[in-house]
Amino acid sequence: MSRPAPLCIGLALAMSCLTKSGWRREDSQVEHLFSIDDYIQLAKQAEAAKLDFVFRPDTLFLPMEMVGTEPGFSSLDPMVLLAALATATSKIGLVSTASTTFNPPYVVARQLQSLNWLSQGRIGWNIVTAIDGQTNFGQQNLMASKQRYEMAAEFTEVVQKLWNSYPDDALTFDRQSGEFANSNKVQAINHHGDFFNVQGPLNVPQYPSGNIPLFQAGASPWGRDFAAKVANAIFAATPDLHAGIELRNDLRQRAALQGRNADDIKVLPGLSLYLAETRQQAEDLYYQTHTSLTREKKLAYLQKNLGVDFSALDDTQPITVDMLPKLDAVRSHTHTNLLTRFIERESPTLEHLLTRPEVMGSAHWLVIGTPEDAVESIKQRVEAGAADGFIAVPGGSRQSAQLFFDQVIPLLAKAGLSRTEYQGSTLRDHLGLNA
Ligand SMILES: Cc1cc2nc3c(=O)[nH]c(=O)nc-3n(C[C@H](O)[C@H](O)[C@H](O)COP(=O)(O)O)c2cc1C
């Protein structure tokens, strides 16, 4: 089919402009957070900009320490949200997150395949193991990371078997003979594994566009191996160029070891954008958005992820790797490893460490500046081999998202880095999987 667009570009549908103190702006329209209109508008804008997909992150818990001061993880169910977006759009891909730790695979397989029919082949699945929420599912402790990924691998296998258990060409609709479907083509899966026993078949046939594309988030060694084996793309947290190059090279090598082509897996870092007409305005926007992030909160974050309390230290104190304890279990290897590698490399002062994206936000690549600055940064990452595209996470204000559509995308298109027309109408087409 068509040649894929030069960069793979997604937009986080997370109202990230409302996080931290963003919701307190007069023009934030925070009251719309749980109504569908704003999401439809964003998805339509993303479609008009010819992006590959909108992407819905998701969690299954609400951190009580956040909800008093910011939306945090307050959110509509992604499958329900995407069902509404499927009917309001016609071309753009719709990627939903679903956890393999807390859901039954039959339900996830069915929800995603149902959405694939509603959207006519535009669905993708972001596979996450999840970092919290166990107490909402009758579990005291979260399973160890390695075991979560073993479960994720089996979960994904079951979901794929279920999708294949009822192929669309089984449907014959033969009114004459009375055959609705060729039952020989519909097969039980009889899966018996370490975590799941599922007979199948699924009660939704597979949409004819082919396998639903898989995304993955999580970059521990197990997460990387899992992604290298099954994923079409990885949603990555790479705060600096160094982390981006390391992750992309490593994933490409792991994919090759699995017998795949290194180009089969796209590395799509989250790109946090604080955009304004001038650099000074963008700095102000970033500062205003983060006023609620006190020193205490940042130190608590470091303690949670590195297992050490730096609160008694002076800001000028260099933080070195020998100050870090050896941790047996961490919440997210991605976040702990990023911080550890940065400390190893730079021995930063505590003050510097507290300004890192991993500590201030969600460990994403961060651009605070003008649309031109964003385009320069994107070019630099791509040329350095640190990204195959990105997932835009506009922050701070609605204007930041508007500038992304009005200026960043046209500048990228002018540079030949984003498409100006869709060549196909399914997510597989956009990702070049049918080429
Ligand atoms: C960029 C990025 C995005 C993520 N998005 C989600 C998400 O939407 N929902 C979720 O439950 N977990 C999310 N996670 C967490 C991962 O699924 C995973 O549980 C976590 O990173 C621990 O795995 P790791 O040790 O391989 O890093 C995300 C992680 C990263 C790095």
From TrEMBL:
One of its GO terms (molecular function) is monooxygenase activity. NCBIfam families: FMN_nitrolo. Its EC number is 1.14.-.-. PROSITE patterns: PROKAR_LIPOPROTEIN. Keywords: Flavoprotein, FMN, Monooxygenase, Oxidoreductase. InterPro entries: Diverse_substr_monoxygenases, Luciferase-like_dom, Luciferase-like_sf, NTA_MOA. Pfam families: Bac_luciferase. It comes from the Bacteria. PANTHER family: ALKANESULFONATE MONOOXYGENASE-RELATED, C2H2 FINGER DOMAIN TRANSCRIPTION FACTOR (EUROFUNG)-RELATED. This is NtaA/DmoA family FMN-dependent monooxygenase. Residues 17-386 form the Luciferase-like domain.
